[in-house]
């Protein structure tokens, strides 16, 4: 795809989001459920959209929240509901709408103390902490965030009683019920005035910062980081963890400097991503240019996206680590430095994550748990401790506490960031140096993700491809060894296809929102071989879905 001339640069003021227009559209634009783009649609991370194109508006939030209340009633979930927002402009109005409905339904709401922003992992942590040892009266949660998406976006996701992202059986039910409520002009939505709602006896305030930060020593060796005096730089990217990093530094007496303490809902301080749009994506070299330029000032530096469920690691030796590189480093380190984890504890990865992880797991003698895209697939294993680590190529990960019990069942950008400092403290090497050692041992991988055009019918065909429809026997000069349409770990449909050879692989999946499909590819023969692999992958897929 063409790189924008604005990529890696600050945008001019006239290209920033118009905040008054955005909020006005939230209240004034009313979705038409006969238009697919304006219906409630739960993807891998909840319902997302923009008020400007009537895909994330007040009526959506009212309907989704009532649908969640109805789901809770159906399932007998009657404990407190932990709710938090990130710093996107649409998050606060969406929380107001949600609270009006939750209070009217008699739900015990746990708002953030002092109206603070709340990272996704703090919600997951709160749910699991509350539910520990309980069989009834269980809690669940709502996170209002579109993750790292542009400033004009809003997002709304539900975390059930296991603390992780809701599985598709739950989101399908909530989605159908919400659209039914929209269709019926919100007739069955219970709602009360916000000022009454926040004063209701069922509305409470919870200190998410204290609860989460004070528990961190149980998952990260803070003594080792402090003892080695690791000099860290942390950039919240103007997101929900804005007050967490200083609290972490103070509580554990760490040599940690918070690089950006401002919240600006236009995110004017962010350099634009590859396409000229602002995204708070800590895995993008375009958005992380400022931190990369300062990498030699710190032993290790890191950033998290707006809801702090993704991480980006910057090392003096190499700059920004690609997510796949850091996942492999983290896995190798954790399984060698967590002796209380069980011998059968497995390594979790998605099918589009690096084969380097496979090699590391084999070296460690650990079972590989390979699942489709979506962190929800890791939640059960992290919950019961059978998975020590779950990670996605898009820089989302979580792992167990030091004692082998559950920490979070949703992505947590904060603990992988702090882990990079523990790695430096205990090995004397930054994560970039650790990855180089892995690459020297197993081979240097070249990777890419590209997009190719596909209409709706072609995307449907791709999602249902069978191995028999791939007639090629070779890929980029190597014999095809595997054609995968279902995940090895749980036989869940990939929603696309993965083709594997002895020296590389590609996977293809349709986009849920655009007329494209995505190709993920990796080669252990270098960049030229990677380009050949991608070219042939597109030919193979186009032929199969023609």
Supply database-style keywords:
TATA-Binding Protein, 17 helices, alpha/beta, globular, 23 strands, Alpha-D-Glucose-1,6-Bisphosphate, Chain A, domain 3, 3 domains, 546 residues, five-stranded mixed beta sheet, seven-stranded mixed beta sheet
- The CATH topology of the largest domain is what? Alpha-D-Glucose-1,6-Bisphosphate, Chain A, domain 3
Q: What amount of the residues lies in strands? A: 15-25%
The biggest sheet amounts to: 7 strands, mixed
Q: Which sequence of strands runs across the widest sheet?
A: 1-2-6-5-3-4-7
* CATH superfamily heading of the largest domain: Alpha-D-Glucose-1,6-Bisphosphate, subunit A, domain 3
Q: Kindly state the number of beta strands.
A: 23
Structure annotation, total helices? 17
- Amount of helix: 25-40%
How far do the termini sit from each other? Answer: 22 Å
Q: What is the total domain count?
A: 3
Uncertain segments of ≥5 residues (pLDDT<50)? Answer: none
What does this protein look like?
With 546 residues, this protein is α/β, with parallel strands linked by helices. The chain folds into three domains: 9-211, Alpha-D-Glucose-1,6-Bisphosphate, Chain A, domain 3; 215-442, Alpha-D-Glucose-1,6-Bisphosphate, subunit A, domain 3 (Alpha-D-Glucose-1,6-Bisphosphate, Chain A, domain 3), CATH 3.40.120.10; 446-545, 2-Layer Sandwich (TATA-Binding Protein), CATH 3.30.310.50. The protein is 34% helix and 20% strand. The protein has helices spanning 19-28, 58-75, 91-104, 120-131, 168-183, 194-199, 208-213, 222-227, 244-252, 289-293, 323-337, 355-364, 379-384, 414-427, 431-442, 456-463, 527-545, and strands at residues 42-43, 46-50, 81-85, 109-112, 140-144, 153-159, 203-206, 232-235, 256-258, 300-304, 311-315, 319-320, 346-350, 368-371, 387-392, 396-399, 446-453, 474-475, 478-479, 482-486, 493-500, 504-510, 516-523. A seven-stranded mixed β-sheet has the order 1-2-6-5-3-4-7, sandwiched between helices. Strands 9-8-10-11-12 form a five-stranded mixed β-sheet. The chain starts with 18 loop residues before the first helix and ends with a helix.
């Amino acid at each position: 795809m063409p790189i924008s001339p604005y990529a890696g640069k600050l945008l001019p003021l006239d290209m920033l989001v118009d905040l008054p227009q955005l909020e006005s559209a939230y209240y004034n634009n009313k979705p038409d459920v006969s238009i697919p783009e304006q219906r409630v649609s739960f993807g891998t991370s909840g319902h997302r959209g923009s008020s400007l194109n009537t895909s994330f508006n007040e009526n959506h939030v009212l309907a989704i929240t009532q649908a969640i209340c109805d789901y809770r009633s159906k399932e007998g979930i009657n404990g407190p509901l932990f709710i938090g927002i990130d710093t996107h402009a649409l998050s606060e109005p969406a929380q107001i709408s949600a609270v009006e409905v939750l209070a009217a339904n008699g739900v015990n709401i746990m708002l953030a103390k002092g109206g603070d922003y709340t990272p996704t992992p703090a919600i997951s942590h709160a749910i699991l902490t509350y539910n520990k040892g309980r069989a009834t009266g269980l809690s669940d949660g709502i996170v209002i965030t579109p993750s790292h998406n542009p400033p004009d976006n809003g997002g709304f996701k539900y975390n059930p009683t296991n603390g992780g992202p809701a599985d598709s059986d739950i989101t399908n039910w909530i989605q159908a019920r919400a659209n039914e409520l929209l269709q019926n002009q919100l007739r069955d939505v219970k709602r009360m005035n916000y000022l009454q709602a926040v004063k209701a006896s069922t509305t409470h305030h919870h200190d998410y910062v204290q609860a989460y930060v004070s528990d961190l020593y149980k998952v990260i060796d803070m003594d080792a980081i402090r003892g080695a005096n690791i000099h860290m730089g942390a950039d919240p990217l103007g997101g929900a963890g804005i007050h967490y990093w200083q609290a972490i530094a103070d509580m554990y007496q760490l040599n940690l400097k918070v690089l950006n303490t401002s919240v600006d809902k236009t995110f004017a301080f962010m350099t634009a991503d590859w396409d000229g749009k602002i995204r708070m994506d800590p895995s993008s070299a375009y958005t992380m240019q400022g931190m990369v330029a300062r990498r030699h000032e710190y032993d290790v530096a890191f950033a998290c996206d707006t809801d702090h469920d993704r991480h980006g690691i910057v090392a003096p030796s190499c700059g920004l680590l690609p997510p796949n590189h850091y996942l492999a480093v983290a896995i190798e380190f954790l399984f060698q430095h967590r002796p209380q984890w069980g011998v059968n504890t497995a390594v979790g990865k998605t099918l589009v994550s690096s084969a380097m992880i496979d090699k590391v797991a084999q070296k460690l003698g650990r079972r590989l748990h390979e699942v489709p895209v979506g962190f929800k697939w890791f939640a059960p294993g992290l919950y019961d401790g059978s998975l020590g680590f779950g990670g996605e190529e898009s820089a989302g990960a979580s792992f167990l506490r030091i004692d082998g019990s559950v920490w979070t069942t949703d992505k947590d950008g904060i603990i992988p960031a702090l882990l990079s400092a523990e790695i430096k403290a205990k090995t004397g090497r930054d994560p970039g140096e650790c990855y180089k050692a892995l690459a020297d041992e197993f081979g240097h991988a070249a990777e890419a993700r590209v997009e190719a055009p596909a209409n709706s019918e072609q995307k449907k065909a791709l999602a249902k491809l069978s191995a028999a429809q791939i007639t090629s026997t070779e890929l980029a000069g190597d014999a095809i060894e595997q054609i995968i349409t279902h995940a090895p770990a749980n036989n869940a449909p990939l929603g696309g296809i993965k083709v594997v050879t002895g020296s590389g692989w590609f996977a293809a999946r349709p986009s849920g929102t655009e007329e494209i499909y995505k190709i993920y590819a990796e080669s252990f023969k270098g960049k030229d071989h990677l380009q050949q692999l991608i070219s042939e992958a597109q030919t193979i897929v186009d032929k199969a879905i023609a």
